[in-house]
Amino acid sequence: MSDEDLLRFAAIAHDDLATLLMAASRSVNEQALGAIDPQGTSGIRIAHVPLIAALEPGGARFVTLAARMGISRQAVASLVRDLTDAKVTEVVADPLDGRAQLVRLTQLGDDFCRRAADYLEERERRWRRQYGNESIAAVRKVLRGLTEARGGD
Predict the structure, then answer these.
(1) How many other CB atoms are there within 10 angstroms of residue 64's CB atom?
(2) How many CB atoms lie within 10 A of CB 36?
């Protein structure tokens, strides 16, 4: 790659929509986690949030979580270990199949979900006031379209 190619790529990448989406996602997620857990004492990191959101009220199996999240069972196990160490989740035997295990929230996990839902609802209202209902609906539609797109640009 020539210096010219590198400079051209860097200039384009700086303002690329995917780059901006990643930066915006990182920023709003860090703000949210900071508001939900201001002292940072919960042990929950941004990487844990999709796992918590993938849980079912009675718990979910590792294989189910892996499929929902699109990651390996080993990656799920690592996230669950973190959350279990932080007492946010617990691992229990599946009452329907003693060989299987379920991951479920503890009271600390329930409390986090309540605070997170409250924050996300308020953030949505704030964004609607700031940007307008039509703009928020349009952004959501575009992002869903990008998320659902497979195999092409």
Answers:
(1) 18
(2) 20
Its pTM stands at: 0.85
Q: At what angle do helices 133-148 and 107-131 cross, to 10 degrees?
A: 120
d(CA 53, CA 21): 21
Q: Is residue 94 a contact partner of residue 63, using CB atoms and an 8 Å limit?
A: no
Count CB atoms within 10 A of the CB of residue 131.
Answer: 12
Q: Which two tokens stand for residue 65?
A: 């979580």
- Nearest CA to 103 among 113, 112, 94? 94
Q: Please check whether residue 35 is in contact with residue 117, taking contact to mean a CB–CB distance below 8 angstroms.
A: no
CA 89, chain centre distance (Å): 16
Residue by residue, pLDDT tens for the chain (153 residues) are 589 999 999 999 989 999 999 999 999 999 999 999 999 999 999 999 999 999 999 999 999 999 999 999 999 999 999 999 999 999 999 999 988 999 999 999 999 999 999 999 999 999 999 999 999 999 999 999 998 876 555
